[in-house]
Amino acid sequence: MKKLSSPLAVPAQxxxxxxxxxxxxxxxxxxxxxxxxxxxxxxxxxxxLRKDLFELAxxxxxxxxxxxxxxxxAAVWVAERAxxxxxxxxxxxxxxxxxxxxxxxxxxxxxxxxxxxxxLALWQDAWVTAPIESRLDAPVTWLNSLADTARxxxxxxVVAMTLLPPRPLPAPKMSLWGFRYxxxxxxxxxxxxxxxxxxxxxxVADNTAEPQLGFVGHRYKDGVYQLPxxxxxxxxxxxxxxxxxxxxxxxxxxxxxxxxxxxxxxLYPSVNVIARxxxxxxxxxxxxxxxxxxxxxxxxxxxxxxxxxxxGADDNATVSVAMLAIARAWKQRPGQRSALxxxxxxxxxxxxxxxxxxxxxxxxxxxxxxVLNGDMIGxxxxxxxxxxxxxxxxxNSTPLVDMALKANEQFAKFTIDTxxxxxxxxxxxxxxxxHVPYVRAGIPALFFTxxxxxxxxxxxxxxxxxxxxxxxRMTRWMYATGWAVSxxxxxxxxxxxxxxxx
Length: 502
Hints:
The chain is of the alpha/beta class. It is built from eleven helices and 20 strands.
């Protein structure tokens, strides 16, 4: 073959593939492209996706909660499937695993709360909203409204009042509306009261919060998860949230609160699962397209309609099994660059696995060409999907967006909902998945999703509710985008001046 005289040398393997199967992105002017049409769509089979999904989202894995043996068993399941597919281990020490420590802070079971000598059952009548060590034995000052804070000094006093609706209210039909209502109300009210120098705060649920206490209180019972480097100062003012019946005596103005609040600190292991499918080009295989998802979910909690297991089928077993299908396709016909698959742990505890990997990658960070992250890709209308990071200010790589949109136009043919990419969207969905740490690290990244639904973070997120045909389409779209990135002569770049708004 005659050597090209162009100043941009094209590897022979890429040019051969271009001549064989044609350009996927003919006419795209932003980058010199030598991407080929994905040749292994037939490796992405609905039957395989369904089988893997029903295994990973089964009750036997108990919701795969981060920091538990259930999460570790899920990670082993993923790693074994990767091994069966012939993927190379790309974790630590020649394994598929990258372990990292989770620091968990919880309210200790020894905690006791009494009003007028009557004990309140922890996690049934009263919730300590943040782990704290404190001893209280004091009269309670009842406030009818926040205006009462101006009628005398409250410094050093235990104060109580009814929980006030937050302003503004969470947007109608927003996911986990009751949780957001209570969290926003607590934050707003306690901020005002802490400024008065109070010793403790007791908030009595209002009529809106009362029926939500069991679900929301589960979050407080679980405690706080952190990476060790994220450790923050412990709260200095105890905040209790109590049921209306338990809090009724507080309104008398003569109530006495006695509380012994204890906290525990634990270190748990969590784990990322990492595997690699080598690229076909001897030089370009040193670079990787990173496919990203998370294998954990919410675990076991208080029963909802008799079901206590948060299976997390859509969130995020769908993407975990999609990555296995993409790996199967990559093994059948490798792209020029390698494919790196990272199943993150502890996403539900604050994107902790992806934060850890972005800071401690098992490959040179500079070798990661792009991150294609998915979260929840198997529900809602059959022909709709979203690509977050495709519009400003979230877009950090216009060439990467162009490739994803072209792949959708040619192969998946979804109607793209861009409204959730708007920074004013009330869900803030862009910031709630594993691409974010990579964007902050300066790596081109996108977020593929079919968006939220009423079963989100409930025990109803079951495998039986997943649209397998749609899941297969989303898998092929992610795969086609990664294939284009893999076979592009010039690697995609971050847009000049790209910066997240928060």
